[in-house]
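Why this split exists: single-chain examples teach little about how molecules sit against one another. For that reason, every record in the complexes split bundles all components of an assembly together and asks for one structure covering all of them. Below is a record exactly as it appears in the raw files.
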Amino acid sequence: MIDYATLAQESPSEVRHMIRKGQWDQPTSGLANGHTQANLVILPADYAYDFLLFCQRNPQPCPLLEVLDTGDPIVESMADHADIRTDIPRYRIYSKGILSKELTDIRAYWRDDFVSFLIGCSFSFEQALLENGIPVRQIEEQRNVPMYRTNIPCKSAGIFSGPVVVSMRPMTERQAIRAIQVTSRYPSVHGAPIHFGNPEKLGIRDLAHPDFGDAVTIREGEIPVFWACGVTPQAAVMDSRPDIAITHAPGHMFITDQKDTAFSIL
Amino acid sequence: MIDYATLAQESPSEVRHMIRKGQWDQPTSGLANGHTQANLVILPADYAYDFLLFCQRNPQPCPLLEVLDTGDPIVESMADHADIRTDIPRYRIYSKGILSKELTDIRAYWRDDFVSFLIGCSFSFEQALLENGIPVRQIEEQRNVPMYRTNIPCKSAGIFSGPVVVSMRPMTERQAIRAIQVTSRYPSVHGAPIHFGNPEKLGIRDLAHPDFGDAVTIREGEIPVFWACGVTPQAAVMDSRPDIAITHAPGHMFITDQKDTAFSIL
């Protein structure tokens, strides 16, 4: 395997090339630094309208970056002719909502009726938070961001429904005010937080036990700040138990050619 | 008919009630002042996926505000149980892209496979422009905003393709700078302009002859400023000649319960 520090400085296309050749099967955080990474959901066309509508109705947790044509595995807008079947380090195949396989190449499972959805990720605004002096605790502690199911229902669409899932970053009130300003500039990758302070208002009982990802330290004088999270659409897909669904493995994202800064409207 | 000044101050639900009862069949500009108005496109379900994808791929000209469930004529998110078949003053029915009827109530034409799309409109940011001292010439001159087909292609989706259509407002450079700031706050209703200055760069030959709407005066020292326009998806629908499509008549919009200010992210 290539070392991490090398890949952090590489171009997105070079990193995807190495992933495609099997030279990198680890998480992608920090690779091709400064470029947006995306969540992947692949569904058969029979489910695609409902899922597209679900994302349209819930844009804050489900910000669509690109939807490929039915049967077409080639990304054209977010990257220059990347192959969605090979250019992600790890995939998960779910049968009726149950994880059945984890693998590094899905060409053998590809079908002519598959539709691929690339969904925005909060990684895209974290660099902007750091540049504004706001701590991103899970980066400091080298963990995955803590994520929680809330008591806020998404608007349902066809077979898809489920709760909004949030990611949480602890910070002071003063930092939270700046974080609201900074992330408001990124409406197409989750935008501003949806809550801060008391987690019980979101139906979250224990911040130390996230539903996805890892717990992080909340220091004296800090409050939790909650953003709508791109795991929301994946959770809705799993809960609805489609015959087959393919996603990236957690943390093993699709690296786009787009810079994070391109998603800032201000 | 009720007079205009009365309806300008009424609530959205009261205005929709009068429209539903046939007491108002005129344009809606300025009615229920301060509340967002929306464009309407109704298509059979066979076309709905392609159209939803077209809007997802072209969010600046095609900002979706709400998509109703298949066969369901009741608006629930943008308004409290409005009936999309009766609550717009005038509708147009198109057969294979050709206007076949204009009428004030479409209940007799409703089908169980119809999907209704409500699409954002630049009316939503014009009040903010006025409040910032920026002229909105077509309001001053009591005309429809001038709109032009450009040489910029939309990203196509299934059967739908076509050029980006823009609306144009003339102003000074200094006002344009402020207008860019102000409209950047409204990413879900077209957002910032896509061009200013030389119209030929957009393939527009003559500002005095818009493709839709009315020409307006461009004063000495003013430049044209161009925003992506909600007529874009309608033009794409007409060009693709579906068996049937129903839209609002130009200027006769759906009045939502949402305030324009709710669409500002800052």
